[in-house]
């Protein structure tokens, strides 16, 4: 084999290796495989590019000029000042293309070395009345974003203390500021005798670099990694309307159904969270599950901590101020959760009576821990549950979709006590059973729902759903929403679709007709349909995965088909308990 010199390039080495490959009887296939790989043109090109970059690196290149972008603009302007040849037109097109402009801009940034923030020198006039080991000088760089920390005044010492660090904010990313640190100066200005709101304003007005003089806490908070806890919000939250929050401007607004990543639960009263999909790196405050479910509202006087209440043994201080725009400096209101729920009513029926929290009750629903889930080929298909408000006609919608593809979708065959008609078959239209057998199954809780019509009993059983899924078909059921409490289990992993008709807000609007009588719907009919949809949304909306607005039968069927297809191939958020082994 030829001897390689120190100056031999990678692509030359590759060529020599290729020439030395000699297929033999024992390893013929391996040698042919290696030769094919080494002979690939793309691999050779990569080797040559690697060599050129290494050669260029060894030359220790320095920029010829620091303003290539402006030079390119000057050349382009000069070219446009007179008639151009074909070559000049091509050059102008290259110089004015956005891609080349971006490359030249990056070149100038690197050449000028202005990609790092330039920090001013430390001032020489810092007070040294404190021991050097007890003082920490922290320099942070922030743009228009808040610092991401709240402060409070210690009632006993009067010191200004860092009360909270918002995960993902400038202070948290630096790792230099911790909860409990005492703040002494901001940009050389003593804040010992300033009010918290004045300090917050000073911080918010500071741009670029901020220099803080800090006395570190005795035990610094560990810089914890963000947790991977995800919660589905089951209620709407507006921080500006919550007087109990330590800092309204640091609150995170969200809507029911939003997925929240809870990054810290260190404070049992106020969690820090981000909305999944948000580009904002800084976390915001949300009420904890324990705090949101607190049934007792009580207003405390300023400066008094609710330490006697078990929920607030580690509660927030009466006031926290941050460097967000504006600040909150009012009373601390403990509990006050009822105003954020949907038309709460006293469950006991007596003044001051307490209700036992029920997670499936929308008045008590707060957060549900969730995780990502994708259906696997070896698993039974997910159950699809349709619920509908007045006028939605979900049975008709279900039957049309199943009729289009009976090999993939099926209905759970219901049970009935009525006599079988001549054209009907057992197990096709219904399971025909005696009244005694039906009553026995009812007492054994075998039905997800049941009822009586014209003195005959009807019901849909759990076994009927399992029978469809055992055939590897997706079972579609339309039920009364009360059945959701039974169906929301890890066995069925139901995907709940709330179907409601599109109803015009006011006249004049397209006239809607009753599909049964074909008569125009009156204003009273439309109002009843609106109230039905609103009531169902209030009572069961927190258990709904998708809302389908039914314009007409054809478009609703097409939308439902799309949902069913995505269920088999896409990833969805489901309760963690459904997939936990």
From TrEMBL:
Residues annotated as domain L27: 6-60, 61-118
Keyword ATP-binding: no
Protein family according to the UniProt entry: Belongs to the MAGUK family.
Record-given protein name: Membrane protein, palmitoylated 3a (MAGUK p55 subfamily member 3)
Pfam families, A to Z: Guanylate_kin, L27, PDZ, SH3_2
Chain residue ranges for the region called Disordered: 343-364
Domain PDZ: 137-218
InterPro entries: GK/Ca_channel_bsu, Guanylate_kin-like_dom, Guanylate_kinase_CS, L27_C, L27_dom, L27_dom_sf, MAGUK, P-loop_NTPase
Residues annotated as domain SH3: 226-296
Keyword hit for Cell cycle: no
Keywords associated with the record: SH3 domain
Superkingdom of the source species: Eukaryota
PANTHER family: MEMBRANE-ASSOCIATED GUANYLATE KINASE MAGUK (PTHR23122)
Segments forming domain Guanylate kinase-like: 381-565
Organism encoding this protein: Esox lucius (Northern pike)
């Amino acid at each position: 084999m030829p001897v390689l010199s120190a100056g031999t390039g990678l692509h030359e080495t590759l060529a020599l290796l290729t020439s030395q490959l000699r297929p033999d009887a024992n390893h013929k296939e391996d040698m042919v495989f290696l030769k094919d790989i080494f002979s690939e043109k793309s691999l050779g090109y990569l080797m040559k590019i690697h060599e050129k970059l290494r050669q260029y690196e060894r030359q220790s290149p320095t920029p010829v000029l620091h303003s290539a972008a402006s030079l390119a603009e000057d050349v382009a302007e000069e070219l446009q000042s007179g008639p151009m040849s074909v070559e000049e037109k091509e050059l102008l097109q290259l110089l004015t293309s956005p891609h080349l402009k971006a490359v030249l801009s990056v070149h100038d940034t690197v050449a000028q070395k202005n990609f790092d923030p330039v920090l001013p020198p430390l001032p020489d006039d810092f007070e040294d009345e404190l021991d050097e080991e007890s003082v920490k000088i922290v320099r942070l760089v922030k743009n228009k974003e808040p610092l991401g920390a709240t402060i409070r005044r210690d009632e006993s010492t009067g010191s200004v203390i860092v009360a909270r660090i918002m995960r993902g904010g400038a202070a948290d990313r630096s790792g230099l500021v911790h909860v409990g640190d005492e703040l002494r100066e901001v940009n050389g200005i003593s804040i010992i005798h300033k009010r918290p709101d004045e300090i917050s304003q000073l911080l918010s007005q500071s741009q670029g670099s901020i220099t803080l003089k800090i006395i570190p806490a005795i035990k610094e908070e560990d810089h914890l990694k963000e947790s991977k806890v995800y919660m589905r919000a089951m209620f709407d939250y507006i921080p500006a309307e919550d007087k109990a929050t330590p800092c309204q401007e640091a609150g995170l607004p969200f809507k029911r159904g939003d997925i929240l990543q809870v990054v810290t639960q260190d404070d049992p009263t106020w969690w820090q969270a981000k909305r999944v999909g948000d580009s904002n790196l800084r976390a915001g405050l949300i009420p904890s599950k324990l705090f949101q479910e607190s049934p007792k509202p009580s207003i405390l006087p300023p400066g008094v901590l609710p330490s006697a209440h078990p929920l607030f043994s580690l509660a927030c201080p009466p006031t926290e101020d941050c460097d967000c725009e504006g600040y909150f400096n009012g009373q601390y209101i403990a509990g006050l959760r009822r105003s954020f729920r949907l038309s709460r009513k006293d469950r006991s029926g007596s003044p001051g009576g307490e209700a036992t929290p029920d997670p499936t009750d929308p008045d008590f629903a707060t957060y549900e821990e969730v995780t990502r889930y994708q259906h696997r080929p070896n698993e039974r298909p997910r159950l699809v549950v349709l619920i509908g408000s007045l006028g939605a006609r979900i049975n008709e919608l279900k039957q049309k979709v199943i009729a289009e593809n009976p090999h993939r979708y099926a209905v759970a065959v219901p049970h009935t006590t009525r006599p079988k008609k001549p054209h009907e078959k057992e197990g096709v239209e219904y399971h025909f059973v005696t009244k005694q057998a039906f009553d026995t199954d009812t007492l054994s809780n075998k039905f997800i729902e049941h009822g009586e019509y014209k003195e005959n009993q009807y019901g849909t059983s759990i076994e009927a759903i399992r029978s469809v899924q055992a055939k590897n078909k997706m079972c579609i059921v339309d039920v009364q929403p009360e059945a959701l409490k039974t169906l929301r289990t890890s066995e069925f992993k139901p995907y709940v679709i709330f179907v409601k008709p599109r109803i015009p807000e006011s006249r004049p609007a397209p006239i809607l007709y009753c599909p049964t009588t074909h008569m125009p719907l009156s204003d009273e009919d439309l109002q009843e349909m609106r109230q039905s949809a609103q009531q169902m949304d209030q009572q069961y909306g927190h258990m709904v995965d998708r809302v389908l607005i039914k314009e007409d039968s054809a478009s609703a069927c097409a939308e439902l088909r799309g949902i069913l297809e995505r269920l088999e191939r896409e990833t969805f958020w489901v309760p963690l308990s459904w997939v936990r082994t």
